[in-house]
Amino acid sequence: MRIFKKILLFLLISGLLFIFFKKEFFLDISGQTLKKFSSYSDIVLNEVYLSGRINESKINIIDAIDVSIGELLVNINVKNIRQNLNKLSWVKESSVYLLPMGKLEIEIYEYIPFSRYIDESNTIYLINKDGIKFKKIEDNRFENLFLLYGKDALLNINELPLIINKLNSFNFKVTKIERIDSRRWNIFFKQDFFIKLPNFNALNSLDALYKLDNNIDYNNLTFIDLRIQDRVSLKYKSVD
User: Fold this and answer.
1) Rounded mean pLDDT of 53-78?
2) Under a CB-based contact definition with an 8 Å cutoff, are residues 223 and 196 in contact?
């Protein structure tokens, strides 16, 4: 009986050792096979394509993507990549696709800056034509864009693109636009004068300038007042 128990114990231990080593052998072999298989298939990331970047930092984009060549595709979360990209200052929207042969394709659509906006605390932002503040900037950045300020300026910004386009026909370079009392605009030019626009029909009021353009002396001009319909008032600097 004692010998029989020893034989059973020996067989049990031998069986367990066999199962253990067989498992380790299987895991080792399967791991090697997976590595070899991934080298010849599209289950790992081989290439990353990026389009649409103009102003956003390359470093910021790489950090947002946060993937490595050779990484298993099953570990790549396309939704997270898109969310991270959309948090970047310049990025308005993005699209992320995993394509065959281990390719990751990324398209970003950046905000188009319309002007520099100064808020009540004198903080300066880049904004698009819809008035969205998408990036805080320093005072000396993007000086080619006009400054926009004044109470409720962003609420009425949709009026400005057409106004600016019409002013461009006069070769006036807009440098600043001020919202006055939440009602109307004063528009300042590089030529060192400004225009007072009316509360209503601001765009149409500029038509009066077409009739007078050749008769206006812009030297020493302080402002052109278009606030009263069908009347153009000119104010000049005092000259000694």
Assistant:
1) 93
2) yes
Angle between helices 78-86 and 58-65 (to 10 degrees): 150
Cα–Cα distance between 69 and 130 in angstroms, integer?
Answer: 38
Rounded Cα–Cα distance for residues 239 and 96 (Å):
63
Give Cβ neighbours of residue 116 (< 8 Å, ≥ 6 apart): 124, 125, 126, 127, 137, 142, 145, 146, 147, 148
Identify the three-state secondary structure at position 225.
Answer: strand
- Listing DSSP states for 114-151 in one string gives -EEEE-TT--EEEE-TT--EEEEE-TTS-TTSPEEEST
pTM: 0.75
- Eight-state DSSP code of residue 48: E
Give tens-digit pLDDT for 123-135. Answer: 999 999 999 999 9
The whole-angstrom separation of Cα 184 and Cα 116 is 19
61 contact partners, CB below 8 Å, separation of at least 6: 50, 53, 85, 88, 108
Per-residue pLDDT band at 140 (split at 50, 70, 90) = confident
